[in-house]
Design a protein that fits this description.
Layout (H helix, E strand, L loop, with lengths): L6 E5 L4 E5 L12 E3 L2 H22 L13
Antiparallel strand pairs: 1-2, 2-3
Length: 72
């Protein structure tokens, strides 16, 4: 399981749950996937994360670090 952030938001205009991955925002087009259900959008978001990580590994590109939440 990866540790990357995922934002899932409902789009009234599109009638889909849209998925954004903050750590990838400067590298790929966002939102990166969508689905009619929240569960489907999350599953597709996980698949997109794995797809990009694998592609970047194979291409020898730098992989963004996951963001971590820190409490004071």
């Amino acid at each position: 399981m990866n540790k990357y952030s995922m934002i899932v938001e409902w789009s009234e205009e599109d009638q889909f749950f849209l998925v954004t991955i903050p750590e990838f925002a400067d590298l790929v087009v966002m939102p990166c996937t969508h689905d009619k259900t929240r569960e489907g959008a999350i599953k597709k978001g996980e698949e997109v994360i794995e797809m990009y990580l694998e592609a970047w590994r194979l291409e020898g590109q730098e992989i963004p670090k996951p963001k971590t939440l820190q409490f004071a």
